[in-house]
Write a structure and sequence with these properties.
heterodimer; A: mainly alpha; flat; B: mainly alpha
């Protein structure tokens, strides 16, 4: 079963690289915000799967909860700031 | 139970791959938000439900379902906030005559 979770882990890492392409390439700054949101979603899932691999789910799930809350606060703050500043 | 969990995890992985393809291939920021808000949320839903089923009943299952509820609530909210900021900041949506 560990091999299966490692497969999921590597696939998620590849997906993070795909999103990283959008973050670097993105024509507007809002593309970068969306790409970063995708990366943080993947990293939350990645953290739980990593806990499955290490068989320490109880610890890793708590960390991923913190990541989810930080993701919300950061993304909303960046979106509000860019909304007031306009395109730049 | 384990077979169902593995099937759900693979289904969620499929949706996440589709969302990543949409993130690269779609033409502008408003269409890309569909790939992120809709497909990505569904993929995370399937994958985390599979992981929670694999855990079996217990504290860890409740914690994973809590993370799932947070993701399912916050992902569309963040995409909506970013897209509303893009529209108010003056990004033009792709029109018919731009093709």
């Amino acid at each position: 079963m560990t091999e299966f979770f490692l497969f999921v882990l590597f696939t998620l890492t590849g997906l993070i690289l795909v999103y990283l392409y959008r973050v670097i390439q993105g024509p507007t700054v809002f593309d970068r915000v969306l790409g970063l949101n995708g990366i943080s979603t993947k990293s939350i899932i990645l953290m739980i799967v990593l806990g499955m691999v290490y068989e320490r789910e109880d610890m890793f799930v708590d960390i991923s909860t913190g990541y989810a809350l930080l993701n919300l606060v950061g993304a909303i703050a960046v979106a509000k700031f860019l909304e007031q500043r306009g395109l730049g | 139970m384990a077979v169902l969990a593995i099937g759900l995890i693979l289904l969620g992985l499929f949706f996440l791959v589709v969302a990543a393809i949409g993130m690269v291939r779609l033409p502008d920021v408003f269409t890309r938000s569909h790939a992120l808000a809709l497909t990505d949320s569904l993929g995370a839903f399937c994958l985390l439900t599979g992981l929670a089923l694999y855990q079996g009943f217990g504290v860890n299952m409740v914690k994973i379902l809590l993370v799932l509820a947070l993701l399912f609530l916050l992902n569309p909210v963040i995409a909506h906030a970013a897209i509303r900021a893009a529209f108010r900041a003056g990004v033009k949506p792709l029109a018919e005559e731009d093709k």
